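Sequence of VWA domain-containing protein (Flavobacterium micromati).
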Amino acid sequence: MIIEYYHTMTTNNILLLLVSLLIAGSFSYFQYIYKAKNKSKVGWFLAFLRFLSIFCILLLLINPIITTKTLEIVKTPLPLVVDNSTSIAFLKSEEKIVEIFKKLQSNKDLQQKFNVQSYQFSSDFEPSDTFNFNGIQSNIDVVATSLKSIYKNQIYPTILITDGNQTSGNDYVYSFDDDKKVYPVIVGDTTTFLDFKINQLNVNKYAFHKNKFPVEAFLNYSGTKNITADFIISQGNSVISKQSIAFSPSRKTATVNVLLPAEKIGLQVFKASISSREKEKNIFNNTKNFAVEVIDQKTNIAIISSISHPDLGALKRAIESNVQRKVTIVKPTEIKSLQDYNVLILYQPTTDFKTIFDTNKKLRINTFVITGNSTDFNFLNQQQNNFIFKMSGGKEDYLSVFNTQFNLFSAENIGFENFPPLQNTFGTINIKDDVSVLLSSKIRNIETRAPILAFTENQGSRAAYLLGENSWKWRLQTHVNNQSFEKFDIFIDKIIQFLASKNTKQSLVVEHDRFYNFGDAIEITAKYFNKNYEFDEKARLTIRLTNSKTKEIKDYDLLKGNNIYKVNLDGLIAGSYKFSVKELNSNSTYSSSFEILDFDIEKQFINPDVEKLSQLASHTKGKEFYPDQIDALVKVLLENDDYKAIQKDIVSKTPLIDWIYLLILISIALVTEWFVRKYNGLF
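Predicted 3D structure, token representation.
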């Protein structure tokens, strides 16, 4: 509120203005009055115009600074914040909230003392004085952060009209400053009803086929008598798991752990529910859907060998310790089709392996080559381009040295330096291509720097080389050291995992989840790479989204961010969706699907969170109120002497040269003078 204002100017500027008046008046009088033969009205008018233009020009040259002082009364702000989420409508409190809001907003005493400003919140925070109660999330934390940003360095109270049930964001109790009082108005029925609720479900997003995956459920009971409820997990019409759980007034929570079988490949949707024979007011919080993507990671591995050796059995047992692996030991002349296998272990290859190598040059199946005393190194030199073997006829024992700088995949030193030596033909091994060495060799105490275990990757094909036989002794030594084969088996499994993985570089890479809860943020991101595998900032990416049930199709553009393209698909209804991302310049496409689970988090509550709101009021030294206590709330605010209006002096300084109107006035005066002189023939 502005009370009054006035202008000031320095003494020197005032003297200069008086001199300017004298100069402008003298010059115009001398030219149009003193020298004029006829003292007509035109002469006086021209003298006035000349006086005006000269005086204004002199004003611009002096350029006085005009200081304006404004006296303003600033009231304390009073944010009036309303919960606009669907939980308010579900608790049937929308009419009561509107009534409370209008009563507070229209209170003249509050308006006289405070600057009342109304806001609403659900997932976001914004100014508003109308409410529809359709927000799909409640984030009271965003109220605290937004008010801090709006009212920096100010002391103010906050009226928060809400049920206190937050579904996203940080704990709001400690988000508000403790020196800024919050007065929660608690809406909703506080009567305790019998109610079962699934508070939380913990489950991994992925599971391996034929394995079991854990589900952890946190259950809650609200009631006053002993009761038994059934916790059921089902898929479609089939019940997968059922447990009876006893609750009582002293035992109101329970944690249930269930192992479910992953029998079908792909995205599997399950329903968890809790119920009893008693009637409940709210059954929306009795059920939660969840989904798990079952992955078939079964890897078929062929150990191809023309000789018998203890290494073969040790490798088979180590690899098959992972139930997702299946190993077949076969001779090179007996193998029927390489396409049946994901990884080939070529044990001590000789010329008998020629057909295997020739066929695999087309199939490009990743290989694990193991050499030893029976290996034909001349043949091996012809079949690969990673090493040059110059071997003599003698045999040598090679100890291992672990390379701590190896970074192709995570590998643990399980005590390789203390393992029995591997035996290989003596000679020199030269590295030709880019090779990553995990274990290098040592003869007694002399390091040869030659590899024992190395890995290569070339144009999407991967290979591993173990240069020495008798690795079965390593597995046995691991058991001696740890009373378990586990460490050695995990080490071998990591090698197989590296070889079983495909690392083909794709130009269009899309990332997304396979399922979302209704109301979650749904964002799909993509990257597009040019032929040099560089991020292409000129790509044009679109996405076509199809509802699997209604067949409704929607098209969106992906917007470029920081080395990424993304699209936000918030607002979709629950259901299954197929989508296709396309790069318009190259026609590269990626197709997949996702599912939005039917879960309305705002319908999980039957009562306001009185305890949380009371904590908030206590933390900020405010006080909680109920809808029938609005008059008491107004009285508390009006009687609080901490919230007084502040008188502020606002000083602004404006140089006269910034006045555009002065330039316009000079122009008008000069132009008018010219026309009058022209019209009266005074040129």
